Amino acid sequence: MPIHIIDRRLNPGGKSLENRQRFLRRAKSLVQGAVKKTSQERDIKDVLEGGEVTIPLDGMHEPRFRREGGTRDMVLPGNKKFIEGDYLQRSGQGSAKDSGPGEGDSEDAFRFVLSRDEFVDLFLDDLELPDLAKRKIAQTESEGIQRAGYTMTGSPANISVSRTVKLALARRIALKRPRKDEIEELEAAIEACTDEDDRAALVARLETLKAKSKRIPFIDPLDIRYRRFETVPKPVAQAVMFCLMDVSGSMSEHMKDLAKRFYMLLYVFLKRRYKHVEIVFIRHTDRAEEVDEQTFFYGPASGGTLVSSALQAMHEIVRERFNPSDWNIYAAQASDGDNSYSDGELTGLLLTEKILPVCQFFAYLEVGEAGGSAFDLSDSSLWSLYERLRNSGAPLSMRKVSERSEIFPVFHDLFQRRDTAQEKAAP
Amino acid sequence: MKERLFEGADWDFHTLQRITDACEEVALKDLGLDVYPNQIEVITAEQMLDAYSSVGMPLFYKHWSFGKHFAFHEASYRKGLMGLAYEIVINSSPCISYLMEENTATMQTLVIAHAAFGHNHFFKNNYLFKQWTDADGILDYLDFAKNYVMQCEDRYGRIEVERTLDAAHALMSHGIDRYPGKKKLDLRAEEKRAGRRRQHEEEVFNDLWRTVPKGAAKSRSTLSIERRRKLLGLPQENLLYFLEKSAPRLAPWQRELLRIVRHIAQYFYPQSQTKVMNEGTATYVHYRIMTKLHEQGRISDGNFLEFLGSHTNVVFQPEFDDPRFSGFNPYALGFAVMQDIERIVSNPEDEDREWFPDIAGKGDVMGVLRDVWANYRDESFIGQFLSPKLMRHFRMFHLHDDPEERAGIRVDAIHDERGFRRVRRELARQHDVGFIDANIEVVDVDLSGDRRLILHHHVIKGSQLNETDAKRVLQHLADLWTYDVALIEVDANDKVLREYVVSPRPIAAAVA
């Protein structure tokens, strides 16, 4: 009987991918909720990691007719001391154990692992990015080309002569195409030959050789190889991202969450573009300090509001640690718009003189309470200041945001300005 | 002494070939097995997870629930909560066995003996599999099903198809013919039939029919109940079959989807009835083959010890008060009974002669076993062949748990002379699908009235349906039936215990 033994290990994987995507699509709102929750708990830098999420199984349930209760009979192994007619005490809920281990757990919550891409996708989806922008962020930009082997087709400019000749040579040897000196040798022999019969044999042989060398071309189209090129992502060295935030008492949790999301998005964006991204957190009240992420978002602070202090701190850090010729500098400032009146002058000066010239991008995000409609009525002091600067030509992106979905438009500017930013970034 | 098949743990494809040849020699010559041609495939852990999520089949139609299972298995596998099976074997011709690449050479030998010969023989010879499954056609049929579902998605939209499949899956356990009499499924013909049906529809399509004015509806109230039930083939316990044939407003493709799900459920039906026997057979066969190979010197002592380690793990039966206990281990029980039959046939005691006059001391072990493998299912197998000696060995006892009984759970019988028969009968009953699955059947349709579909659940021993799940399943059923569905739970005296009525959901998307 013939037995077939087959190695399936090399078959393309991901057979379940389609089913998995269907499942994710179906569970989208649930998974998205889980992703939102997870990303709130995470540090900015971890947003790009995939990870385990837990969703309630409701709606993902596959119902069956199941019976329960009633009188039950069972046969068990391992009797030690029972005899017929004994009664065993029911322990509390005697039947609870029989629901099967693990099953009860999976009934209400379902836990599984999202890959990095799935996670980022859902995260971006949550921010309601338009598809085009999503693609730009989520996919690695292909910016350079590099050699990648040879190909059978291509443009004539890309012909690889050495490879082509090498192949032609191999083919000629394999097919026994007569070499040039072989023919010359034979011709010389014919010259020198005196015997008529021998001569005729030599001439016949010469003819065969010549015919053969005609039939087997020196270079066949089959031999031709072209150099192949591949586009590869070329991240531009390194970038630093400054997160500036007002942490005075007037900033609510909701505002901070908006800011955090904005920072996350900016981080995702930068991470795709640069090999190495540093993040600097600067929080300020009436004085500024560099802090770690936990303190930045959750540390308590109180005091007045002096925006210039943060800009001053940033300026000093740039001077000490991030030379603008080595680093791409991005800055994002989040605030509720309060600033003490006397500080306006200094802020404007610092921004135009010191900060903006070294930055690729400076975004100002004015965050408001959820559904804040009164928010649009009057401009805050900081907003009017920045607007004045922008009108006089300073490269500033600024937005007011009170809902998560409004965060994206700030990036719109970023994408539009990308070409010029790129030029600047080039060394 | 013959040449060693392998040394150490490493193997390559030549080793596999040698192993398979050696196993085949023992299986066919010494054990007299009769198997489908074998196809052995080596797969990775990821592919094994793939197979897990599509009920072990190599190809299957796409559905979100398989993705869910995949995500679940993957998560628990990654966390180390779950190990993967060493193999998966498919009841098809050729019989396909998947082996994990991580297995050592000994494990591969064990697995080949177990799956490619043990299970394979059982699939080919057991009467239930012969009756209900078509090993030659299954792979082609799955391929057809996959393509058909895909075509339906293209034509009618993914959501519509998904809705139908969700409903069909919910009713899958009640989409089975339990009694023979129908002709065996020929899955290849099924595929052709579906194609012909569609072709016929396309050929006879005439748009004019749409414009013909409809006459006054004919009253059918004159039909007697008996006649009506007969016309609809009632009572009917195969709910999917009934819907496929009689649901008033399903599109042809939806009926075909129900049919596909029904056929697949039917294909797996014998497996659920023969877990103990199937695993017992395979375990017994691998044990015999491995022992023989070791006797012949083709497996070294060290490798044989490795095998014995795995084998002992497989047939381990924790006792009821052990935290690891989760019911009878089908491998342990099946293997023990098979070995016991071997003992009874070749070396019986007086007790065995009294209990098993037909086989005791008959001498031809393999002949008896092959007959057992061919003609029994778990319930009848245990009911017939569980010997007193084995009941004593497992120290079995029977508990009767009546919620009405205040004193607690009664020990009804133990492994003694008075209890043997009762213990055996109860254990056999535990393996009878007739007692495990809820007994639900369509009993009537009110055709003259509101077309309500009426089902009965015949409650056994007071065990009713889980309410949440029952409502959900009925919702699916009502969606397919498109009119109200009533499920009445009645006990043995026709007393109504509970009644569910569910109305179909309006379909959000416009019905074309």
TrEMBL record, chain A:
Disordered as annotated region, ranges: 86-107
Family to which this protein belongs: Belongs to the UPF0229 family.
Residue ranges crossing the lipid bilayer per the database entry: none
The protein, known as: UPF0229 protein GA0061099_1001846
Listed InterPro entries: UPF0229, vWFA_dom_sf
HAMAP family, sorted: UPF0229
Organism in which the protein naturally occurs: Bradyrhizobium yuanmingense
UniProtKB/TrEMBL annotation, chain B:
Domain SpoVR-like C-terminal: residue ranges: 439-492
Stretches assigned to the SpoVR protein-like N-terminal domain: 10-433
InterPro entries tied to this protein: Spore_V_R (IPR007390), SpoVR-like_C (IPR057008), SpoVR_N (IPR056174), Ycgb-like (IPR057270)
PANTHER family: STAGE V SPORULATION PROTEIN R
Protein name: SpoVR family protein
Native species: Bradyrhizobium yuanmingense
